[in-house]
């Protein structure tokens, strides 16, 4: 009997309409364009299932992709971004000033410390991974999950043997609407990393890269 292979495409949501920390807001126009470019790219991927987190930016990204896919869109709260606790809704400058000691400790990549009043990598893995296991065992073969940069890093660290404190080594910056593809082998109950932070659909549009993010 042939083993069942699943292609799991983890998509980081499009650019949101705010630079504040983890606010639940709509996509910016640039985020919509990013999702439209990805939508056009995915038309030949034979996608047969679509999931997203319940945060607005993830749901809107999935909805744009679904203009081409025309699939049931399943929304799962446990796929949402890591909770930044007291840092949420604040600017980078504010957090750099008021949570300086935490950020300096986090940069050491030694201990999986939680964000002040929020989550750490382990807690995100414990809520998100059961959903991922359910998804890959659903009988579908080509699955999109629209989620968040922090959640993607957490999953990669856990699946490929990294301490959660070192999850930040997975990419200097994950581009919005980038594809991280995992291949799941049911026979061995094992995940393989097929591609990481693939944003080829954004090439030729440097204004859509994270390094050029500016909310006007």
Describe the fold and architecture.
With about 220 residues, this protein is of the alpha/beta class. Helix content is about 30%, strand content about 15%. The protein is built from 6 helices and 6 strands. Strands 3-2-4-1-5-6 form a 6-stranded mixed β-sheet, sandwiched between helices. Helix 1 (about 30-40) packs parallel to helix 2 and helix 5 crosses helix 6 (about 150-160). The termini are far apart. The relative contact order is 0.22.
Describe this protein with a few key phrases.
216 residues, alpha/beta, 6 strands, 6 helices, 6-stranded mixed β-sheet, single chain
Mean pLDDT: 96
Structural class: alpha/beta
Largest sheet, strands/sense/barrel:
6 strands, mixed
Percentage of residues in DSSP E strands:
15-25%
Residues in helices, as a percent range: 25-40%
Strand order of the largest sheet: 3-2-4-1-5-6
SSE pattern, N- to C-terminal: EHEHEHHHEHEE
Number of strands: 6
The outline comes out as globular
Uncertain segments: none
Distinct helical segment count: 6
Radius of gyration: 17 Å
Amino-to-carboxy terminus distance: 56 Å
Quick gist of this model?
The protein has helices spanning 29-41, 56-69, 92-98, 100-107, 121-136, 149-159; strands at residues 5-12, 49-52, 73-75, 142-147, 179-185, 190-198.
């Amino acid at each position: 009997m042939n083993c069942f292979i699943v292609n799991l495409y983890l998509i980081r949501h499009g650019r949101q309409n705010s630079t504040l920390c983890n606010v639940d807001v709509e996509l910016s126009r640039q985020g919509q364009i990013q999702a439209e470019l990805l939508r056009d790219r995915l038309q030949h991927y034979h996608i047969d299932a679509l999931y997203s987190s319940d945060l607005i930016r993830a749901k809107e990204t999935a909805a744009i992709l679904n203009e081409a896919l025309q699939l049931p869109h399943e929304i799962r709260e446990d796929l949402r971004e890591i909770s930044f606790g007291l840092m949420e809704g604040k600017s980078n400058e504010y957090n750099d000033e008021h949570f300086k000691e935490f950020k300096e400790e986090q940069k050491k990549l030694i201990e999986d410390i939680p964000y002040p009043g929020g989550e750490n990598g382990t807690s995100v893995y414990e809520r998100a991974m059961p959903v991922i296991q359910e998804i890959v065992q659903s009988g579908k073969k080509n699955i999109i999950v629209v989620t968040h940069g922090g959640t993607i890093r957490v999953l990669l660290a856990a699946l490929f043997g990294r301490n959660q404190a070192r999850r930040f080594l997975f990419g200097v910056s994950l581009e919005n609407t980038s594809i991280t593809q995992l291949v799941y082998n049911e026979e061995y109950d094992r995940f393989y990393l097929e591609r990481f932070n693939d944003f080829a659909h954004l090439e030729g549009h440097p204004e859509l890269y994270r390094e050029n993010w500016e909310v006007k």
